[in-house]
Amino acid sequence: MTKSMLHSDLVEEIELTLRQIAKQVRRKGREILTDFAITPPQFDALIYLNEFGDLTIGELSSKLYLAYSTTTDLVDRMERNDLVERVRDSNDRRVVRLHMKDKGRDMIEKVLEARRRHLAQALVHVPSDDMQTLVSSLKQIVDHITD
């Protein structure tokens, strides 16, 4: 067996394993969200607002890859649930930005905590000596796979 065939087999195995992990993380993530009465797109919106700060609906719709009208409906529901509020931009009163409220921040923390607990249960089966290598390897993949 040539080195490139061996490498190809390992790449195939890594891709399959990452896909299986992603599938289970998504599945459990959706399950966790039902406990918090929030949809996956709403949670994604909160994550973007947390990461980038106040955004316009247009900016948020671009990040979520959703139509503007769909994002508006999503934001309306989030506003009714007291997760976000619309605020006028201080530099340009014509611009309306979405601002995450304390309830939205609390929601993110609680959901991420539940997700981390679930992941921790799976990671107890990974030998402690392998954990740092795993983290380092995953970070290398992230560094080289992103655009």
Verbal overview:
With 147 residues, the protein is mostly helical. It has one domain: Arc Repressor Mutant, subunit A, CATH 1.10.10. The protein is built from six helices and two strands; from the N terminus they run ααααββαα. Strand 1 and strand 2 form a beta hairpin. Helix 1 packs across helix 5 and helix 3 crosses helix 4. 14% of the residues are buried.
Which secondary structure elements does this structure contain, and how are they paired or packed?
Elements: H1 3-35, H2 40-52, H3 57-64, H4 68-80, E1 84-88, E2 96-100, H5 102-123, H6 128-145
Antiparallel strand pairs: 1-2
Mean pLDDT: 93
Task: Quickly count the helices.
Answer: 6
* Element-by-element helix/strand order: HHHHEEHH
What oligomeric state do the depicted chains represent?
single chain
CATH structural class: Mainly Alpha
Q: What is the terminal separation in angstroms?
A: 33 Å
Short synopsis of the structure:
The chain has helices at residues 3-35, 40-52, 57-64, 68-80, 102-123, 128-145, and strands at 84-88, 96-100. It has 147 residues and is mainly α.
List keywords for this structure.
2 strands; Arc Repressor Mutant, subunit A; single chain; 7% strand; mainly alpha
